[in-house]
Every structure is written in C-alpha cells, then in structure tokens.
Amino acid sequence: MASRYADNDREVFSDLGFSESGGLQPDSNQESYYLPDGSGLVYGKPLDADVKAVHGLTEEEEVFSESGDGDEKKTCISRVAAPFYKIVPYGGLASNCISFAANNLGGGIIAMPNSVRTSGVGMAIIYLLILNTLAIYAFRIFGIAIEKTKSRTFEETGTVLFGRGWGYFVGFIVALSCLGASIGFISAIGTLLKPIVLNAATSPHYLKTDNGIRLLTVIIWACAIVPIVLPKRINSIRYVSMGAFLMVVYFIICIVVHSCTNGLTKGIRGNMTFFTTGNQAIYGLSIFVFAYLCMGVTYSIYYEMKPKPSLGQLNRSVTITMTVCTVLYLMCGLFGYFDFGDDTKTSILLNFDPVHQPYMMVAYLGMLLKLVVSSAVNMIPLRNFIYHIIQWELDTVPYWKHCLVVFATTSIILIAGLFIPSVTVAFGLVGSICGGFIGFIFPALFWMYCGDWSLKTVGWFHYIMCHIMLFVGVIAVVFGTIATIYDSFIDV
Q: Which segments cross the bilayer (predicted)?
C-alpha cells in the first residue's frame, strides 16, 4: 500500500519536470517554491490545486503565490482571509474537534429526548456513558489500523486486511450509513420547518400542506446544502461547522431554560420511569448508537491533520469531542424529557412553538444550519465510496466531475428525504444496521487483522475490549434492527 503511494508521488514529480531529489537544476529565470513539509526548495512549475492537496498544501496556502524573483505577493482576497484562517487553523486540534462534532451532533440531538422516554432515564444515562467510552476506544483502534496499513479510506483498509471484494462491502456499509443519515437530515429539515409554518398566522395555506413543506425543503437544499457539499476537503467548511456547533449549544440552553420554567417544575408524572422493558427499551438503543456514529469521516480528518497526521492527535480530538457531545446529549435528553414527559415527540422540535417564542426561533434557525452542515459532512464518505467504485482519485479528479457526482448524489438524497415518513425510522435503521458495524465490529476486526494481534502482544485489556466491541456490535445490529422495524411498522 505504501509503495503504491510512493509510485504515485514519483509519477507526479516526473510529470512536472523535476526529480525527487531536488528537481531541475536552478535557473535564474526558473520558478521555484518550498515543499509544504519544509524539506527544501523545489525548482519547476508550481503544483496545480489538486496535486498540492496530495502533498499537503491547505486550501488557505493556495491563495498565496510567489513571483519569479521570490517576492511573496498577497491578493486582496488573501489579505482579508488570512486573519480568519488563524482563528481555527487548518487541520489543528480545534478544527478536528469541530469536524467530528459536525458529523456527530445533528439528527441524534433532536431525537434524544424521545429516546430517553423509550429507554427510561436510568437506562439512557447508562447507554450514553457506555457508548461514549466505546466510541473513544473505537477511534483509537481505527487510528492504529490507519497507521499500520497506511490506507486512506475505509475501502482500502477493507481490501488490504480482508482481501479483494471486502473493500466494497466495508465501503457499502459506511456509504449506507451516510446515505441514511443524510436522508434523515433532509427529513429533519421538514420536521423543523413544520411548527414554524403551521404556527405563523401569515403563512400561505399551501405552505402548511405537506407539499408546501417539501417546497421549502427543496429551497433550503438548493441555497444552503448544495454550496457546502462541493468542497473536496472537510476543513474547507470548518467555520460553517463551528457556527453550527455553537447554535446547537444555544439550542440546548434554550431546552434547559424552557424545562426549568415549565415541565421540570411538575415533577415525575404520567408514565415517566427510570427503566423500561420489552422492544421499547431496545428501540432506544439504535438512536443512541446513531448519536455516536461519526466514524465515517475519520480518514478525511486524519489525513488533513497539521503539522502531520498522528494517533495522539486523533485520540485527543475524539476524546474531547465525544465527551462534550455526551454532556450535550444528556442535557438535551433529560431536560427535554422532563419538560414534556409522555408528550415528548419523536423530534423535540415538534414540541416547541418557535413563532411565539422568539428565543426558540433563533434556536430553530441554528438547528437548521446544523442539519445542513451534518448533511454536507456525511456526503464525504459517500462520495469516497462512489469514487472507489468508478476508480477515481479524489486528489486528481477534475473539479467539474467532482461537482457533478456530488450534485447527483445529493439530489437523490433530497428526493428520498422528502418522502421518509418519520425521522426516527431513518436514524433508527442506520444506527442499528450500520452503527453496529462501523462503531463496533469494523474497528475490532481492523485491528485483529492488522497482524501481530494476540493476548500476548496486546494484553488483557485490549483483548477483552475488542471482544466486547464485537459482542456489542452484534447486539446492536440484530436486536436494534428488529426493535426499529417492530416499533416503526408493526406496533403502530
């Protein structure tokens, strides 16, 4: 695997007219630039945008150009943009955390209060704490597999470790997960718009119908989702992701305040309980698993890390992100459930009246931004799988071809999302079927098949943890899927 990338690098340097060891001989009229890793000055034509990405140049660095005599000249755009690039540096710890959070927080947060209702308060807390621990451990295993195999995508890892054909299976599961999540986000946008339109006295009658909500969803898709799914790099949308994350925090603060001034003062009531039994208890598990299903962007974030990708940086990023997300999930789930009790809807958005509560209207608009960003981030693993099938390389494919593939894919997602009956159906199926594989089974198997894995080499802790991951993954796939289907289509 490593040799293949080395061959690719040699071909790129050869095509540009200079050698690996230092390029062409220096010439007074010859263009030059420094390699991104600071290893030296290279003579020859500057790398184009796609090849720059292969060798580590960020999109911010590409806005700076060098003249023939070596004097750096900044464009007007670069002068304005440069200070903003330093707020959240490209590939830094903050950027990595924001990117993981952009994929993690979204549909799971709006379904969390209902999941607490179905599972019970006590069981929900146990689920969240266990899944937080296992998610952090799963990312560590993914990082070990990436460093050992040197692969750049899930598909490559599957092919290297399991053999020809298995890469397609691994990629399909990851792509199916992102497809289901993206469809769920489109459906959630409609769910978010419904209370706003229905409660607004000046809303036209047509917009209050299902077709009217779909029309508004299409407009948001065209104006907001399409523009931010086009960039190739996940770090390119980190500032939008940061804004969306802050709006999620604001939304949860609104839930806490509303709960403290309304439902929380009524105490335990109705069927509120700490533990539930039967299919209802198991059904909540699939939503909780989905809430931690952000592994699909691991490779993209890892290889965009600065100054260089490392397992330590990955561990720090996911530990911070998962811990913060768990706290937010607990606050949203518990306070949302305490507020509405048995009347908690499948999406907490349906329980509020944003039209007559201005502070909640701001929160709704913020959650709209969050759903848009989550949909865009989930497109990254999905498009990677498509490129793997048609044998395209992300770094070298022409940008217009990239845009066509992404636009066609997101159009299909839009059509599917407009007709999903319930947001929890999509999230539940994705969380149970795909979440069990991606969050638990794949990480354990990846490390086991990397070689030199045994009780003697890894120790008791990792040996037991990997088998626990496999066991939990099977439970999530089998029982979670059955419970989701039963709750959504049979017990209605």
A: 87-112, 124-146, 166-193, 213-230, 242-261, 281-302, 314-338, 358-378, 399-420, 426-448, 460-486
